[in-house]
Amino acid sequence: MTFNLDEKELYQNLVLAEKFLFKSPKIKFERTLIWRKQYFKNVPGIYAVFEKNKIIYIGETGNLYERMSDITKTVNHTFRKQIGKSKFGGIKSSKKYDPEIEEMLDKYFDEELYITFIEVNFGRLEIETYLIDKYQTQIINSEKKRKHKFNYDLIAEVEKYIDT
C-alpha cells in the first residue's frame, strides 16, 4: 500500500471529495436532537454550511453527530461566534452573546442555514485545507495556520477528467 500519493493523485482525491460534498443533498439546519439523529452518525467527515445557496463555512470533524450540536452553541464553535459578530454586531460577554443576539442567531440558524456533508475517515484535514483555500473569498472561516500551496493549473486539468 502506498501512502505517498503523487501530486496528481492527491488532487484527484481532493477534487472528488469536493464534488461529492457539493452534490450531497442540502439539509435544512435544525437545532434539535431529532434532526441530528435523523441525518448524522458518530462518524468523521467534512461539512459545508450554506446560507440558501451561498457557501459560507467549511469544516471537518471526527464526529459529525456531535459537531452538529456544538455548531449551534456560541460557547462551543467559532462559526456561530463569527456569525454573531459579523451579522449581528455581537460583542461576547464571557462565552456567549447577550440574550437578544443569541436569539437572533437561533433564528438565523433556523431560517437561513443548510448543510451538506460527506463521511471521510482519513484525510479530512487535507480536504478541509484545500476547500478553505479554494473558497477563502466566499467563506467566513478564519485563515488556517497550516498553509499548503496548491497547483491550481494541475487541479483544473484533473477536474476536466473527473466525472461524478
How would you describe this protein?
The protein is built from seven helices and four strands, in the order H-E-H-E-E-H-H-H-E-H-H. By secondary structure, it is α+β, with helices and mostly antiparallel strands. Helix 1 (7-23) crosses helix 6 (124-135) and helix 1 packs across helix 7 (152-161).
Question: Proportion of β residues?
Answer: 5-15%
Q: What structural category arises from helix and sheet content?
A: alpha+beta
Describe the global form: globular
Helix percent band: 40-55%
Q: Taking Cα atoms only, what radius of gyration do you get, to the nearest Å?
A: 17 Å
Distance between the termini: 25 Å
Order of helices and strands: HEHEEHHHEHH
Largest sheet: 4 strands, antiparallel
Number of strands: 4
**Number of continuous helical runs:** 7
Structure at a glance:
The protein has 164 residues and is α+β, with helices and mostly antiparallel strands. It has seven helices and four strands, in the order H-E-H-E-E-H-H-H-E-H-H. Strand 2 and strand 3 (54-61) form a beta hairpin.
